[in-house]
Structure formats: C-alpha cells, structure tokens
Amino acid sequence: MRPEEIIVKPIITEKSSTAVAEGKYTFKVAKKATKVEIANAVETLFDVKVLSVNTMTVKGKEKRVGANSGKRPDWKKAIVTIDTNPSETSYLSKGGKEVKVDKKYKDSIDMGM
Domain-by-domain residue ranges, the chain? Predict the structure, then answer.
C-alpha cells in the first residue's frame, strides 16, 4: 500500500492535542496496515523520525434511526511517537571507519491546522 492509503486522517481531540507536547500523534489508519507500514508511511509523508507505534481497533457503535438500527464500521487507530530531538547518529562500518548519518528530520508534524 502507498503511504497515502495507509494514513487516512489525523484524529484531533482534546486528549490527542495534549499528547502532541510529548511527541505523540494520533491517526486513523487502514485496517490492514501493520505497525511497520504505519511507521514508514509517517516517516515518508511528514519527514520525521518515528520511535514507536501503538495500534488499536476501535469497535463501531450501534446507531438507531427510528425503528431501524445498524452498526458503524470498526476502524483502526494508531498513536505514533516521534523523536522530538533528532540528532546525528554514527556507527562503525567495515574496517572500523566511523560513518555519520546526518539526514535532517523535523521535530514536529504540521497537520495543517
């Protein structure tokens, strides 16, 4: 799946707005998306470094209009924790030579609010 198909929309509630200060963002995602796919999609779309992804399936509510009753569909929610203080990382390559990865990451996600 493409990243645009995995991330359906951001979820903006009072609880999710307070979690933004900790670097946690909440999204409605495709039901079949895995944690790895969600992390890659967020990194691709928003150019941030993802630290962890927590997912849950939200059960649809029972709704009634007059005498008719039905059920809303189930959906999947993902809480993505990003690195709010990205820094350069270095590692030793073959031959003991130190290599630095200096990819520039953002420290927040701009959801167009």
Answer: 3-101
How much is the pTM?
A: 0.80
CATH superfamily of 3-101: RRM (RNA recognition motif) domain (3.30.70.330)
| Block residue for tokens 């953002």 | 106
Contact 40, 3 (CB under 8 A): yes
**Residue 33 CB: number of other CB atoms within 10 A?**
21
State the CB neighbour count (10 A cutoff) for residue 55.
15
Each residue of 23-57: pLDDT tens digit? 999 999 999 999 999 999 999 999 899 999 999 99
3-state class of 94 per DSSP?
A: helix
Residue 76 pairs in a beta bridge with 29, 57
